[in-house]
Structures are given as C-alpha cells and as structure tokens.
Design goal:
Elements (H helix, E strand, L loop, with lengths): L5 E6 L10 H7 L1 H19 L5 E6 L14 E5 L5 H14 L4 E5 L8 H10 L5 E5 L5 E6 L17 H11 L4 E3 L9 H5 L10
Parallel strand pairs: 1-2, 1-4, 2-3, 5-7
Antiparallel strand pairs: 4-6, 5-6
Helix pairs in contact: 1-2
C-alpha cells in the first residue's frame, strides 16, 4: 500500500444526540443510540489506525477541532453537497485531483469491518477498476476505485435496499472490472445490533 497514492475516505456524522442512528433510537432511545454510535466511531478508528495510507475523515456538519480524530495521521474535511451521492462524489473528486491512484470510502456504521478487509480492497484495485463491499441491507459499506467515476454516485435512491444492485448495474454498463468483498452488516436498526457480536450492549 502506497501511502502517497492510496486514500481512505471515512464518512462520519458529528456525534450529536438525536442526529445519529435515528432508526435505532426509535428502539433504544437517543442517549443509547448516541453511545452506540460513539462506540462505532472508536471501532472504525481502531481499524483505520492499522492502515498505511492517506486517511481522511469527512464530517457531516462541521469539523471538530478536538476529538477522536485529532491525530496527525488523519486529515479533516467537511462533506459538501446535497444528498449522500453528491457528498461522496465531491470527496472522491478531491482525492483524485490530489494525484491519488486508488481511493476507497467507508462509513462508520459497520462494527465487523476489519483492517484486513480494507487492505484486501486496496490490493484488489491493482487488477480491478472498482471494488464494492456489500452490506446486508442492500447498500454497501465500502466502495473503491482507480479513477474518478462520478456516475456511480448518480441516479440512486440513497439509504434504500437497491443501492448495491444499482451500483453493480452501473459498473457493468460502463464495462468496468469489479470485485465484491464479503457481505457485512451495517448497524441501523435494533435487529442489526442484535446480529453484531462486537458490540456488548452491557458495556455501552
């Protein structure tokens, strides 16, 4: 992995009560949902700490000056755009404009994501143009590419069960080579939480 040429974009939400894990909060309450999200952020940080690449944290509302990500190994950015697709497209465009050759984006909702999976994604991009990490809800927890393909962020119903299939269809229509990673579980609901062994509710 070439730190100068490989970029990892980490999309996060500012951890504020009532603004994160809102579907989960319907079941466990806003305080518990916030605590769970803070735990997910820490898990994500632990995973990405083990990677030798350009690591970028992109905040949803504002850049926190002093927080978990106040580490010289992480760049801080602010998400720009309307829907999720536009915000991701902007982040990818900026990374590729800075001479990165492989760019991967992840969120902070997947407790089962490991550094090994991300390393494998970067490795797959040696021979593939796109790599996708399918989420069990029909979305994806990871998307990587070797060039800027803005159409992969267009014409989608974001946060729906069709995102993964639509992304694969667009990739195939453009005749891009791609590889799928193992399917993992994003945590958005109480059922998702129950399926994730890494989170001990008694310790949150």
């Amino acid at each position: 992995m070439d730190k100068a040429k490989d970029a990892l974009i980490i999309f996060i939400k500012n951890p504020q009560k009532g603004c994160v894990k809102t579907r989960l909060a319907d079941s466990v309450g806003e305080e518990q949902a916030l605590a769970i999200y803070r735990t997910l952020l820490q898990i994500t940080k632990n995973v990405t700490d083990q990677l030798a690449c350009n690591r970028q944290v992109w905040y949803s509302k504002y850049i926190e000056k002093k927080d978990l990500w106040s580490d010289p190994n992480y760049e801080k950015h602010l998400q720009v755009g309307g829907d999720l697709g536009e915000r991701m497209r902007t982040a990818f465009r900026e990374a590729f404009s800075n001479a990165c050759q492989k760019v991967i984006i992840i969120g902070s909702d997947c407790a089962d994501l490991t550094s090994e999976i991300i390393k494998r994604a970067f490795h797959l991009l040696d021979d593939r143009q796109v790599v996708i990490g399918p989420a069990s809800d029909g979305g994806y927890y990871l998307l990587g590419m070797t060039a800027y393909y803005p159409f992969l962020f267009e014409d989608k119903s974001w946060s729906s069960s069709s995102v993964l299939d639509e992304t694969i269809r667009q990739t195939e229509t453009a005749s891009l080579s791609y590889e799928l990673l193992p399917e993992l579980n994003d945590i958005d609901t109480l059922d998702d939480l129950k399926q994730t062994q890494k989170l001990d509710m008694n310790r949150i």
